[in-house]
């Protein structure tokens, strides 16, 4: 394998790593969003239950 092929392979590998990191960040954001939605659902459910108890 000559230097040019090696450099090309290194570049491809670096790009793959960048893509994987970006995908990981997106998954983290999605998880945070899902967590927030779950927490919001629980919050509003509790709020609704408290309000029902008042009347």
Task: Summarize the structure in words.
The structure is a single chain. By secondary structure, the protein is mainly α. It has one domain. 95% of the residues lie in helices and 0% in strands. The protein contains one helix and no strands. The radius of gyration is 24 Å and the shape is rod-shaped. The model has no long low-confidence stretch (mean pLDDT 88).
The largest β sheet comes out as: none
Structural class of the helices, strands and pairings? mainly alpha
Number of strands: 0
Give the count of helical stretches: 1
Order of helices and strands: H
- Gross morphology is rod-shaped
Describe the oligomeric state of these chains in a short phrase: single chain
Count of distinct structural domains: 1
Portion in beta strands: under 5%
Low-confidence stretches: none
Give the averaged pLDDT, no decimals.
88
Kindly, what is the distance between the CA atoms of the first and last residues, rounded to a whole number of angstroms? 79 Å
Write the layout of secondary structure elements.
Blueprint: H1 3-54
Outline of the structure:
With 55 residues, the chain is mainly alpha-helical.
